[in-house]
Amino acid sequence: MSVLVYAEHTAGSFRKPAYEAVSYAKAIADTLDTSVTAISIGPVDESELISLGKYGATTVLHVAANELKQFINQAYASVIAAAADHVDAPLVIISNSFSGKGLAPRVAAKLKGGLADGAVELPVFESGKLTVKKTAFSGKAFAMAELVSDRKVISLNVNTFEVREIGGNARVEAFNPQVAANDLTTVIQDIVRTTDSVSLPDAEIVVSGGRGLKGPEHWGMIEELAEVLGAATACSKPVSDAGWRPHSEHVGQTGITVSPKLYIAIGISGAIQHLAGVSSSKTIVVINKDPEAPFFKVADYGIVGDAFEVVPKLTAAIKAYKGD
Amino acid sequence: MNILVCISNVPDTTSKITFSNDNTSLNTAGLQYIVNPYDEIALSKAIGLAEGGKGTVTVINVGESTTESTIRKALATGADDAVRVNATPRDAWFVAHQIANYAKSKHFDVILTGRESIDYNGAQMAALVGELLSIPSVSTAKKIEIDSNMATIAREIEGGEEVLSIPLPLVAGTAEGVAEPRIPNMRGIMSARTKPLVVIDPIDVPVLSRIVRYETPEPRGTVALVNANDVGKLVDLLHNKAKVI
Ligand SMILES: Cc1cc2nc3c(=O)[nH]c(=O)nc-3n(C[C@H](O)[C@H](O)[C@H](O)COP(=O)(O)OP(=O)(O)OC[C@H]3O[C@@H](n4cnc5c(N)ncnc54)[C@H](O)[C@@H]3O)c2cc1C
Ligand SMILES: Nc1ncnc2c1ncn2[C@@H]1O[C@H](COP(=O)(O)O)[C@@H](O)[C@H]1O
Fold first, then answer.
1. What pLDDT score was predicted for residue A194?
2. Least crowded by CB within 10 Å, which of A33, A313, B65, B176?
């Protein structure tokens, strides 16, 4: 028996969400008095696979089959379910990334397991049942979900569980289950990266602009501030509706939900739909010229002032501080 | 081309979400219900694909009779007919079985869901229905084009997008960018009253999960304001107090 965790990679490298998922699996495995087996699918170097041991994986199953080089959720789900059988996993952990969303429900269905989607904390075990806290109502609330099936699947929200380095190397094992042709009908034609910088859903710092910025030509100062902070950029819905920024940057109830360490909202009023997507940020800073803007009610720090004056000053101050 | 669109009935986005005293159920008093915003995108896309006699659009909802005004709105927007599975939607697993069961009895080339619902927002439905029907699924589609029996779909990934080509039939969960939401016009509203809305009974599905309790986020303390002429103070607070930079 072993807790199984799917370690997602981008072009052969693991990123923070994979380390979070392995750390999370390890914490659960300790409670259940068992080990962690990670599974990685596609071309990843041996040294990269071994490094998952640092976060608590004892074994890494590596699937190197040619037809599984690129992510096809249907096929990857079959492989992960086969791995769950192989290691007799009572529980499977998958990161709640865009790919994870296409994967976790399919794995759960194959295992006839309950799925807790978007977990934000470690689960609690009690007489065969597992209860875990997850987001609901687009960030307006949390739900405690109880999984009563024999086998269970949890998808873990990114940026909600600390990476824990405990040292050690993982043992890498080749794993080659049969994959049915019916699972492989999807063909990946192209992968387009629109940003070389930080990806919004897993960014630790987010700098976000609203309609107060008046137009797309003023985003230079947002990007500069983001750059000095190593942050991702985001926006409110009207901004992406107007085409000032791409839809993939729109946060809120009908956009991306983020939970960074620091969220800086500039020229955003703080409508309930916007707040829903950012309320689980650890620290919120609001810059708005209207002292009555509702965003100040949920902010930790605020500056009442004109963004066009405050933001360049803030960028300069952070540059100065980082220069020290 | 026959298209099935899954519609969920959710509290309006302006709703303040509160729970019963024991935190076990949502306070529904005073809540306005709407078609889930992402499902409007799915519906608008389906209508666009079917336009000009190229196909039919059926909407399906798993819900109690109170959801019928939401279903009628979908019909008014342009769906041809509707199905309501008469049940309380227990969880995604339950709902997906009802949808897959209905889909099996018909032939659908394309099944669309929203990328997530704004109430329980599991973002599970597209992948679950796909799995139950053993067909491909895409969970966060940003662009969908269909050419005879092949679809080209761009899906969201962290920091970019991936372009897939997939044979029909398939299930896709739609995000913004797939279609502009359509609004019902007067003719639509009139004709919606006479369009078929069939009510069917649910099938039995084993319980795998349940929600035992809700929580609302901890309120934050009051905001600490920093003078606009002293941004250095903010940097200091973020570094030394909040410890986030
Ligand atoms: C179904 C539905 C779903 C929605 N979903 C979302 C969602 O997911 N995300 C989302 O963001 N919104 C969403 N909205 C929209 C939401 O209701 C608000 O309209 C939106 O968030 C407002 O965006 P904003 O704050 O950028 O613009 P505004 O409300 O126009 O606010 C602009 C702010 O900028 C300030 N300002 C102006 N000039 C300056 C300056 N020079 N310096 C500093 N501050 C300045 C103003 O004081 C004001 O507070 C949704 C709405 C609906 C109906
Ligand atoms: N009760 C329901 N009836 C029909 N479709 C639903 C229902 N609940 C959710 N859906 C569909 O599934 C999508 C994703 O929902 P969810 O998995 O709850 O995030 C929604 O956008 C709808 O298209």
1. 77
2. A33
Test B234 with A303 for CB contact under 8 angstroms. Answer: yes
Please give the CATH number for the structural domain made up of A205-322.
3.40.50.1220
Residues of B within 8 A of A180 (CB-CB) are none
Q: In this structure, which CATH number among 3.40.1190.20, 3.40.30.10, 3.40.50.620, 3.40.50.11540 belongs to the domain A2-184? A: 3.40.50.620
Q: DSSP characters for chain B? A: -EEEEE--EEE-TTPPP-B-TTSSSB--TT--EEE-HHHHHHHHHHHHHHTTTT-EEEEEEEE-GGGHHHHHHHHHHT-SEEEEEES----HHHHHHHHHHHHHHS--SEEEEES--SSS----HHHHHHHHHT--EEEEEEEEEEETTEEEEEEEETTEEEEEEEESSEEEEE-TTS-PPP---HHHHHHHTTS-EEEEPPPP----EEEEEEE-PPPP---EE--TT-HHHHHHIIIIIS---
| pLDDT at residue A155 tops 90 | yes
How many CA atoms does the CB half-sphere of B59 hold within 13 Å? 36
Kindly indicate whether the ipTM for this predicted assembly is greater than 0.90, answering yes or no.
yes
CA A202-A205-A210 angle, to 5 degrees, is 100
Q: How far is CA A17 from CA A54, A63, A163, A265, B222, in A?
A: 14, 20, 9, 24, 32
Task: Give me the number of domains chain B comprises.
Answer: 1
If you take atom 12 of ligand 2, which residue's CA is the nearest one? B125
User: A223 at the B interface (CB within 8 A)?
Assistant: no
* Separation of alpha carbons A258 and A261, rounded Å: 10
Residue among A305, A262, A292, A259 nearest B235 (CA): A262
> Across the interface, do B214 and A136 touch by the CB < 8 Å criterion?
yes
> Is the separation of the CB atoms in A87 and A24 below 8 Å?
no
d(Cα B45, Cα B51) in Å, to the nearest integer?
10
B37 CB near ligand 1 (under 6 Å): yes
> How remote is the C-alpha of A27 from its chain's centroid?
18
Dump the DSSP string for A262-297: EEEEES----HHHHHTTTT-SEEEEEES-TT-GGGG
Type of residue found at A27: A
Tell me the pairing of strands A141-147 and A129-136.
Answer: antiparallel
What one-character DSSP code corresponds to residue A88? T
Q: Distances from the Cα of A76 to the Cαs of A143, A155, A176, A186, B129, in angstroms? A: 28, 15, 12, 12, 16
Establish if B160 touches chain A: CB-CB under 8 angstroms: yes
Q: Give the separation between CA B72 and CA B74, rounded to whole angstroms.
A: 5
Domain residue extents for chain A: 2-184, 205-322
Are the beta carbons of B155 and B176 closer than 8 angstroms? no
Quote the minimal CA–CA distance from B126 to chain A in Å. Answer: 8
B243 within some domain = no
CA atoms of A103 and A97, how far apart (whole Å): 10
This prediction's pTM: 0.94
Token representation of residue A145? 């979900």
Give pLDDT, residue A291: 97
User: What length is written for chain A?
Assistant: 324
